[in-house]
Design goal:
It is built from 19 helices and 38 strands. The protein has 711 residues and is of the alpha/beta class. It folds into four domains: 304 residues, Glycosidases (TIM Barrel); 66 residues; 137 residues, Rossmann fold (3-Layer(aba) Sandwich); 76 residues, Immunoglobulin-like.
């Protein structure tokens, strides 16, 4: 018995020790004294990460040289990306051996290592192994297998290929659509009056294009097919080819020097298909969707087709979450490393919904949700609040970090101050893990493809070289980002406003819901009212009603939920919102009220009835009257300055405010903060702490301030 107790105590102590070594993996409440002790030189786990492209011949000499130069630039970690021209083929034993050298050399320098989970992008083709070794697990799509016109009175009778499963006839005269019964494998139909076009749909192996380091052409094509993201067998095979091999070569450094793997833009270029999807659909929705599948592709969907398509999106997005993202997240968590990933089209939500299903479903179990900033998505002349997607997912589901991959294939060649602006822009929207990819200054810019998430050096370069246009002036910016990201990773988020995220309405084809949600986000930010997006599944599964608030897994409480102009909402959400309102919370519908309420399926949804328990602002705008109904502001300024943005986090004994001037002009104002106590300026550029006497605050062009209030 003594021996058993000793073993239990030992296991518990090891668990406690492991947890104490990894505070970056969990939400916790630090005291300001402890934060201050690490402020000047934060732990490497919080530091800025450089994408380290391995183009050309790699060796231990090159690895050591690069790591020395990367560290000298101020980076605390690297993201290893396989490149063209390597003598070690991606996923070969030689590749894993080189990565092990990088891990060992990073360890001696006190640096951290991440690895992109693919040989270029998007994630999920395993360097071409699915095409060559497991073609049965390649990506599939629901596609139009045939389309043709028929004349009035014309009889069509033909046997369909085995892969064609659904047919529809569309009349362009009146935009009507008829589903055609082809369950027997035969199309037998006579066209009535009208201008008819037949659409036949079926499932085929179809992959989005991939850029593979193992592709001799070095282009983007479908030679290396993506895996079937919806099939758990494919994901387990992917893990076995990648994650398991990394564990074999350097598993002893998991959670120490080696931090985790990153997924890059997994999504679908076609309507997804997987062999068991019809069975899953019927089990979840209670009806057979096959007759409507071809209707998804006609120029204008009728009401039944819109509902069936929305149900289909709900089902495949569940499968994407469970069979791709969650399986990888679980494996990484069980092996003490992090799974981090960003999707595609985060800045264009209708496109994101088409290709990824549901941002929040996909990110629910991911350790570090993320976005990327490419092209001109984030720049000084436009509004782009989409980084809020990743930070909101982290806040809702109790994740301490949210990341950005910035500057890959960037349209602009930013100066040092502009690069800092792009990162501050994202950090004030809640991102606190910073990855950057800078092009070499010594090589010309290549013209990137429209969806390329990364920028590679030309293949003529003989070996990797860390040579930035951000040279001598960059290390101070890296020091600033290291400290800022560290501060913004401590404690808990404090926004008390939630904005309902309209995934269900987007599945239903209501793109106005996207416009409305983003407009509300902009108005809140420009009026210094911080918020999180709150998705359907969080609202119905993890948010708990407590004392007139909805509490998430980060311990953050929302006192008001604003619902944008939407057409659809679930019955479960309405029940939760009504319960929240009855407990003292505020629910505001801004714009169109939902016309449909969904329980099991869109197909059997019913008309939305009584919403008298909620506040309704028909204009969809945050009017002065509506602003007065929001929770008391935690930060107020005495001028109208839309360019001033802020973020608030709570520590055990203090409150942190991060304030950012987004305009290239000096502003001054009186600042009033909700909390009382000793106010300090924590200067992330110098690492120094000083007293803030306020209330007057001056922010120079693109300036930031960190204010800590000790209670």
């Amino acid at each position: 018995m003594k021996k058993v107790r000793l073993i239990v105590i030992l296991l518990l102590s090891l668990t406690i020790s492991a947890n104490s070594q990894r505070p970056w993996q969990k939400i916790f409440d630090p005291v300001s004294r402890d934060v201050a002790a690490n402020f000047k030189s934060p732990p490497a786990e919080y530091g800025m990460i450089l994408w380290w492209g391995w183009d050309g011949r790699m060796s231990d000499t090159v690895i050591k040289r690069d790591l020395d130069r990367i560290k000298a630039m101020g980076f605390r970690g690297v993201m290893v990306e396989a490149g063209y021209g390597m003598t070690a083929k991606y996923l070969s034993p030689e590749w894993f051996s080189l990565v092990k050298i990088a891990i060992d050399e990073a360890k001696t320098r006190g640096m951290k290592v991440w690895i992109e989970d693919e040989g270029k992008y998007p994630s999920g083709f395993a360097g071409g192994k699915f095409s060559t070794e497991r073609p049965d697990l390649k990506m599939q799509g629901l596609v139009v297998t045939e389309r043709f016109d028929v004349k009035p009175g014309e009889k069509i009778e033909r046997k369909l290929p085995w892969y064609s499963i659904s047919a529809a006839a569309f009349n362009s005269d009146d935009n009507s659509c008829k589903t055609l019964d082809v369950s027997s494998g035969v199309l037998d139909w006579t066209a009535p009056e009208g201008s008819w076009r037949i659409f036949i749909a079926g499932h085929r192996f179809r992959s989005s294009v991939t850029r593979s380091v193992n592709n001799p052409a070095r282009g983007k094509d479908t030679t290396a097919s993506l895996m079937d993201y919806l099939n758990p067998l494919a994901t387990r095979q992917f893990i076995d080819w990648t994650h398991v091999q990394y564990k074999k070569y350097f598993g002893e450094e998991f959670g120490k020097t080696f931090m985790g793997v990153m997924g890059d833009e997994p999504d679908f270029a076609y309507t997804p298909w997987t062999p068991k999807i019809l069975d899953e659909f019927k089990k979840r929705k209670g009806y057979d969707v096959t007759p409507w599948l071809a209707s998804f592709f006609v120029p204008q969907l009728n009401e039944e087709a819109k509902r069936a398509k929305a149900d289909y999106w709900d089902v495949w997005s569940d499968l994407f979450r469970d069979n791709f993202f969650t399986l990888q997240a679980d494996w990484c968590r069980e092996n003490n490393i992090e799974y981090i990933v960003h999707l595609n089209h985060e800045d264009q939500l209708p496109g994101l919904v088409r290709s990824s299903g549901d941002f929040f479903k996909n990110m629910r179990n991911v350790a570090v949700p993320g976005v990327d900033a490419i092209w001109a998505q984030i720049w000084i002349d436009q509004v782009a609040d989409y980084p809020k997607l990743a930070s909101s997912a982290a806040h809702l589901y109790g994740k301490p970090r949210a990341f950005t991959e910035s500057f890959a294939a960037f349209t602009h060649k930013p100066s040092v101050s502009q690069a800092k602006w792009v990162l501050d822009y994202q950090m004030v929207r809640g991102l606190n893990s910073i990855q950057v990819m800078f092009m070499s200054a010594s090589t010309p810019r290549a013209t990137p493809a429209p969806s390329a998430p990364s920028q590679q050096r030309p293949s003529t370069q003989p070996a990797p070289s860390i040579s930035f246009f951000l040279t001598d002036t960059f290390p101070p910016v890296a020091q600033y980002i290291n400290r800022a990201a560290y501060l913004l990773s401590q404690g808990r988020p404090a926004a008390s406003i939630g904005v309902y995220f309209p995934s269900m309405s987007l599945w239903y084809g209501d793109n106005e819901s996207n416009t409305s949600a983003l407009d509300l986000a902009r108005q809140l930010m420009e009026n210094q009212r911080d918020f999180d997006f709150v998705d359907e599944q969080a609202l119905t599964s993890i948010l708990k009603t407590e004392d007139g608030a909805l509490k998430n897994l980060s311990g953050q409480s929302y006192q008001t939920i604003i619902v944008p102009s939407i057409s659809v909402i679930s019955k479960a959400s309405l029940i939760k919102l009504q319960e929240f309102a009855a407990s003292g919370g505020k629910v505001i519908f801004a714009g169109n009220l939902p016309s449909l309420t969904v329980e099991q399926s869109f197909m059997n949804s019913v008309k939305t009835i009584d919403l008298s328990w909620a506040i309704h602002e028909k204009s969809g705008k945050l009017t002065e009257q509506l602003m007065q109904l929001l929770p008391p502001p935690d930060l107020k300024i005495d001028k109208t300055l839309p360019q001033v943005k802020y973020l608030h986090r709570k520590w055990k004994d203090s409150d942190l405010y991060f304030i950012f001037n987004e305009k290239n002009e000096t502003v001054s104002f009186n600042l009033f903060l909700q909390e009382k106590g000793k106010k300090q300026i924590w200067d992330a550029s110098s690492g120094k702490i000083s007293t803030f006497r306020g209330p007057s605050l001056v922010l120079g062009p693109w300036d930031t301030k960190f204010i800590v209030i000790k209670k």
